[in-house]
């Protein structure tokens, strides 16, 4: 992009660039219209909350109302438990479930716990391995607790004692053969192994288990196992092999490392006998040159026969994805009255910032789908069109200059589906923007869906030659918010920008008390008015909340519980822990100490270098000195990348004579200095008079970014 054009646009938005956008809540509250009764076949929660996201339709709603807008001010800690002895080593993503007053929850340390929901006493603890991995929730059924492990073993545990009833190793070489299209000696067909992932789901004698690993070329599959024994009932290969439907959408043998993994749990409609599973993007993630075609079933929702795994219908939300826009969010099943007619729908979508609302029986788009022409790059073999649903997005779909999506200067940038190749290109929603994998909620009282979103750009490249494929540009700002969407129109009723991204497991629970609960990366759990989003109550949990709160009742007392343990994305410095909390009216357990919140700017975390006053452009700092060779692609090609100097210091920026390219160091977003273009052998100086933190990047190779701290 022309530099003058960029700086003019930046200047126009500079005064408000980092201020959160004003909530769209002014004036009279929007009118909430209740939804029709939801299917009893979904097995909605009552006093218990026996499934991640509450029911088979993933509505994440509790009918309990003791904790209400009127009473929530009296909510306090009922009990608190450090599951792993206070460890802060691992992030935690497991949403608890409750049955008969007992909570069941996992930790990334590979332990499964049963905890008394009234007292917080541990009833039993079972270890399921030594390889830490994301654990997102157990399933309950037939007197068992079903859990995955980092060693790719599925466990059936006795619900009363935690004893192992059975275990089943998955993702093995013997999953190949003629039916799958794989080499019998390698079930992965050439990619990395992959890891079991997502919450386990139980229904009618089967458990449903997903996996992750698209970033390494694992070939995706979804499993159904017999709950009684762990025997595989069926496997659905989401990168279809030779002879399977959809294989012709992959060039050559690219399906063998196709990715398309189901790393979030599905929804199930027992009446229709269908399981709805969402699948991630293809591999390679951001280089489509080797995999011509639409690449089914990547970026798709697939309706499968719950008993046989046979595909009934599918819908692909992004054709030939090159942006990691996988839309892997737990799908939401609803019954809605639209234009006077009762419609059974599935709500699908996330990262792109808009919903695809489809008929559960047929996959037909309830609000229509328009295949629109999109920008092209022949090197990427881009799809000529992409599907846009009727309605409106629930968050922006291109960078803006009035919020955190303001792009770092000198990057190429654009909106949704802007292609890239070797030059890093910023788009929004990015790989961590939009809705990503937060667990949404549907309230039958308002008829609205509640979704947390992230306002986070990504810088895309083809990942060749040391380039970062989905970088978050150093120095950019992070933020997010919450939207309420009316699925009857597929339009947001309101959205509320805030200071934190709320798209990475920050689930929302709604209740009959007309409250919505959600936690954030700063450790605060909030209770909000479900009609306006107004915060009514907050509590510090001690670590980032990247799970869904749940509600249950014991002896006539309603509780809210949540596991707060932090996360690794999108902020690398989210406070971690192992805090399992329960709350009740009149609870007296005090909040946790406030942890250090994450940085709201994508910080440079290289150790500070002192005693140096020269920055060498296009070089990586190594062993206390600039590297010997020029680097045009690394984000840390400023030597040193993090410099600390006293006020009044003159810093010299030098482009070594042995470099082959021109370079230029320019401060952003504060315009502190601009070296101008420096040819090899040239240098420039700047006196840092004012204490502060100054980010800057190379105007020619903008991913090369540095930071100078003046004290």
Largest sheet strand order: 1-32-33-34-35
CATH topology of the largest domain: Methanol Dehydrogenase, Chain A
Report the count of strand segments: 48
Number of helices: 1
Q: Can you summarize the main beta sheet?
A: 5 strands, mixed
Query: Judging from the principal axes of the Cα atoms, what is the shape?
Result: globular
Structural class: mainly beta
Keywords:
4-stranded antiparallel β-sheet, 1 helix, single chain, mainly beta, 2% helix
Description:
The protein has 711 residues and is mainly beta. It folds into two domains: 14-585, Methanol Dehydrogenase, Chain A, CATH 2.140.10.10; 604-710, Immunoglobulin-like (Sandwich). It has one helix and 48 strands. The strands form 13 sheets. A five-stranded mixed sheet has the order 1-32-33-34-35, with no helix packed on it. A hairpin with a 5-residue loop joins strand 13 and strand 14. The chain starts with a helix and ends with a strand.
């Amino acid at each position: 992009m022309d530099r003058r054009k960029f700086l003019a646009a930046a200047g126009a938005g500079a005064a408000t660039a980092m201020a959160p956008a004003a909530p769209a809540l002014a004036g009279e509250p929007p009118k909430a219209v209740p939804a029709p009764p939801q299917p009893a076949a979904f097995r909605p929660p009552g006093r218990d909350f026996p499934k991640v996201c509450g029911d088979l339709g993933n509505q994440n709603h509790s009918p309990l109302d003791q904790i209400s807008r009127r009473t929530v001010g009296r909510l306090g800690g009922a009990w608190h438990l450090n599951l792993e002895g206070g460890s802060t080593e691992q992030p935690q993503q497991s949403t608890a479930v409750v049955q008969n007053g007992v909570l069941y929850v996992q930790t990334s340390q590979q332990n499964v716990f049963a905890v008394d929901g009234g007292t917080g006493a541990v009833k039993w603890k079972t270890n399921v391995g030594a390889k830490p991995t994301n654990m997102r929730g157990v399933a309950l059924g037939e007197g068992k607790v079903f859990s995955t492990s980092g060693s790719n073993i599925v466990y059936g545990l006795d619900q009363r004692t935690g004893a192992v009833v059975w275990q089943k190793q998955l993702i093995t070489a013997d999953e190949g053969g003629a039916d799958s299209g794989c080499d019998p000696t390698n079930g992965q067909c050439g990619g990395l192994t992959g890891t079991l992932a997502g919450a386990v789901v139980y229904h009618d004698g089967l458990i449903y288990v997903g996996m992750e690993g698209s970033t390494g070329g694992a070939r995706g599959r979804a499993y159904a196992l017999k709950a009684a024994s762990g025997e595989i009932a069926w496997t659905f290969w989401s990168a279809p092999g030779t002879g399977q439907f959809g294989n012709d959408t992959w060039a050559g043998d690219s399906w063998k490392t196709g990715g398309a993994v189901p790393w979030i749990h599905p929804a199930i409609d027992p009446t229709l006998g269908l399981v709805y599973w969402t699948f991630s993007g293809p591999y390679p993630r951001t280089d489509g040159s080797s995999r011509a075609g639409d690449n089914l079933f990547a970026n798709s929702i697939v309706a499968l026969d719950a008993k046989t795994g046979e595909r009934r219908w599918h819908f692909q939300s992004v054709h030939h994805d090159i942006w990691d826009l996988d839309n892997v969010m737990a799908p939401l099943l609803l019954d809605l009255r639209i234009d006077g007619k009762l419609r059974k729908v599935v709500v699908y979508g996330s990262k792109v910032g808009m919903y695809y609302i489809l008929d559960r029986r047929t996959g037909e788009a309830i609000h229509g789908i328009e295949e629109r022409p999109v920008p092209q790059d022949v090197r990427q073999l881009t799809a000529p069109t992409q599907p846009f649903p009727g309605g409106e997005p629930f968050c922006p779909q291109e960078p803006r200059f009035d919020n955190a999506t303001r792009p770092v200067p000198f990057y190429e940038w654009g909106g949704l589906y802007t292609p890239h190749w070797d030059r890093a290109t910023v788009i929004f929603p990015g790989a961590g923007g939009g809705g990503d994998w937060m667990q949404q909620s549907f309230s039958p009282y308002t008829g609205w869906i509640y979704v947390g979103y992230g306002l986070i750009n990504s810088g895309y490249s083809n990942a060749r030659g040391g380039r970062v494929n989905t970088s978050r540009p150093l120095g950019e700002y992070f933020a997010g918010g919450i939207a309420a969407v009316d699925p009857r129109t597929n339009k947001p009723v309101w959205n509320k920008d805030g200071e934190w991204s709320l798209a990475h497991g920050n689930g929302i629970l709604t209740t009959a008390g007309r409250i919505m609960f959600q936690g954030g990366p700063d450790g605060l759990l909030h209770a909000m008015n479900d009609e306006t989003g107004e915060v009514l109550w907050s509590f510090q949990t001690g670590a980032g909340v990247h799970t869904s709160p749940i509600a249950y009742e014991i002896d006539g007392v309603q509780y809210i519980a949540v596991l707060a343990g932090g996360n690794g994305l999108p902020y690398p410095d989210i406070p971690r822990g192992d805090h399992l909390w329960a709350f009740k009216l009149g609870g007296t357990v005090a909040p946790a100490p406030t942890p250090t919140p994450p940085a709201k700017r994508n910080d440079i975390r290289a150790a500070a270098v002192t005693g140096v006053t020269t920055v060498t452009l296009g070089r990586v700092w190594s062993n206390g000195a600039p590297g010997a060779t020029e680097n045009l692609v690394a984000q840390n090609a400023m030597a040193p990348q993090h410099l600390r100097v006293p006020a009044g210091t003159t810093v010299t920026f030098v482009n070594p004579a042995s470099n082959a390219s021109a370079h230029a160091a320019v401060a952003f977003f504060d315009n502190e200095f601009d070296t101008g273009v420096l040819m090899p052998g040239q240098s420039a100086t700047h006196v840092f008079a004012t204490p502060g933190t100054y980010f800057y990047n190379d105007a020619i190779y903008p991913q090369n970014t540095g930071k100078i701290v003046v004290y």
